[in-house]
Amino acid sequence: MRLIFAAALALSAGSALAQSVPVNAPSSRAYDPAPWWMDKPIIASIGDITAEVQANRAHLAATYDAVDRDVAEATRSAAQKARAITGSLDAFGAEKVRIETHVTITPLYEQYRDKQGSVIDNQRADKIDRYQVSVQVSAEIRDVRLVEPVLAILMSAKPSSTQSVSFSLEPSDETRTQMFKLAVEDARRRGELASAAAGAHLGAVRLIDPSSRACETDVLVAQAARPYDPTVPRPIPSSQTARQPMNEINALVVTANKRAQEAGLRPEDLQLPVQPPMERLQAKACVIYSLG
Question: Potential cystine with 58: which of 24, 85, 141, 198 (Cβ 3.0-4.6 Å)?
């Protein structure tokens, strides 16, 4: 009887405690302590800048085939053509044009017709008829003023296939810094307009956050997911090479074309106009101001 009475007493005490706590009461760990810059009235302003910058990287690729019954002879012919191309492109310098080559050897088998008349390859080691050696020459152009002469050299070697010219943008450190400066200026303009519309006065700067995290609504939520994690390494933008005068670029083109002509190529007959596109670049900045 004593055990039953004690159990009933504990159950009733637990029920009374549960009824004393509101169902929708917030947890004590729902919010973190407010940041130091929220001890006074503030306004959080996000500057958002979008600009168009010309692409500064181009990628070209062309494939050259050689077919022969002797795999060594086919490889020799393909390698000879690849050397003529790379020897001409080397005149631009590795800091402006980076060259890669990839070699693929494909056996070509004897063929026969089945009962339905379809042509089928006899894929057996002793039925190899010839070998096709393919050399792909890829070029990464870091000065887009050289796209047209590089493309002309690749086309003059009579490739069996080519890929379309692709462009990309790798902003320099100077460009990124200037974009951030413009974003901070835009944050101030927005802060002045917002504070004036609310009948307040924009005060001194309390915080400048390049990641814009301080202006997000989850800044006070405990254990909230953060889009920015300082422990995750971020890629360092590669700095752009110094822009050379156009007469120096023309001198490089003349040297490259001369080497191509010595190798039996005529790139001057295959100049095609190529215009680098404009790429969109965006920057944000969060600036916290006090309110007067």
Answer: 141
